[in-house]
Amino acid sequence: MTMEEKTMKCERVYEGRIINVRVDTVELPDKKYSKREIVEHPGAVGIIPITSDKKIILVKQFRKPVEDILLEIPAGKIEPKEEPYICALRELEEETGFKTDTVEKLLEFYTTPGFSNEIIHIYLAENLKEGIANPDEDENIDVVELSIEEAMEKINIGEIKDAKTIIAILTYFNLYKYK
Amino acid sequence: MTMEEKTMKCERVYEGRIINVRVDTVELPDKKYSKREIVEHPGAVGIIPITSDKKIILVKQFRKPVEDILLEIPAGKIEPKEEPYICALRELEEETGFKTDTVEKLLEFYTTPGFSNEIIHIYLAENLKEGIANPDEDENIDVVELSIEEAMEKINIGEIKDAKTIIAILTYFNLYKYK
């Protein structure tokens, strides 16, 4: 039996700056109807930048949806027609001031496939050169460096609470140990 | 300098079954105004169920927002006034048929703090007893068992693409190895 859900009706309920919202009426495999609330997002990248002395560079910023200051990997949404790795190089420099020539893709994942199509591509950035940060006008960002052990500890004690950051650090930790 | 963003205006743009959406006009630390699009979500739990022979139980289901069948840990949203661990016991049984008396909290995180307040609590479930699955009317779920090594491989090759599932498996893998 197929699991797919055919779209019978699509109602667009919000068109915004970063997200759009629609409600799809779907036909389930048993022919009954249901509704799916869907947040459309352009996709994003996250970068785990590693310095020459093996420190992870993180950014601290206030996140209005959760009313808290979070410690995260540098990240940002993909601009129209932008290649994800170009977005990674751009966001790394804008948010932290660090530049590099190449990034290595680690993985990609859906953040919340139950209600959004957002996909995040995670890149490893090494061989960093210092430059000047240039965050967006409405971004207030502090840059923080942690050792891998410190970052793992902050996940364990709940001080790092952002999904993409946890995935990037755990993935890098496993890579690093088995290198 | 504080990083916080004061709410100057709040416009509710959508009230739905699982999510609500609002647009906050905020005052930034430099006194300029900006807008924040925020998806309100009641929060969720995810459960990593481990059988007596150390297999991980996952569920396969179609996810309309990404138009794909995903392999995920059992999960579900928290009902009004429900304790997260009660929700974990309930969702485990509803989606997989497996029951247990207690669950152990592993961690919690925000899935997308840039545009949503969704928090997910992850629990480890062991000492499972078989029962009868009873998914929601609009859920079509297949249950799959994988060894830890198979699950790690599926993350590495991109067959597991769901953030909460990646976090639960990587966290369990690290725990398990150091037990």
Automatic annotation (TrEMBL), chains A, B:
<dbReference type="Pfam" id="PF00293">
    <property type="entry name" value="NUDIX"/>
</dbReference>
<protein>
    <submittedName>
        <fullName>NUDIX hydrolase</fullName>
    </submittedName>
</protein>
<feature type="domain" description="Nudix hydrolase">
    <location>
        <begin position="40"/>
        <end position="168"/>
    </location>
</feature>
<dbReference type="InterPro" id="IPR020084">
    <property type="entry name" value="NUDIX_hydrolase_CS"/>
</dbReference>
<keyword id="KW-0378">Hydrolase</keyword>
<dbReference type="GO" id="GO:0016787">
    <property type="term" value="F:hydrolase activity"/>
</dbReference>
<dbReference type="InterPro" id="IPR000086">
    <property type="entry name" value="NUDIX_hydrolase_dom"/>
</dbReference>
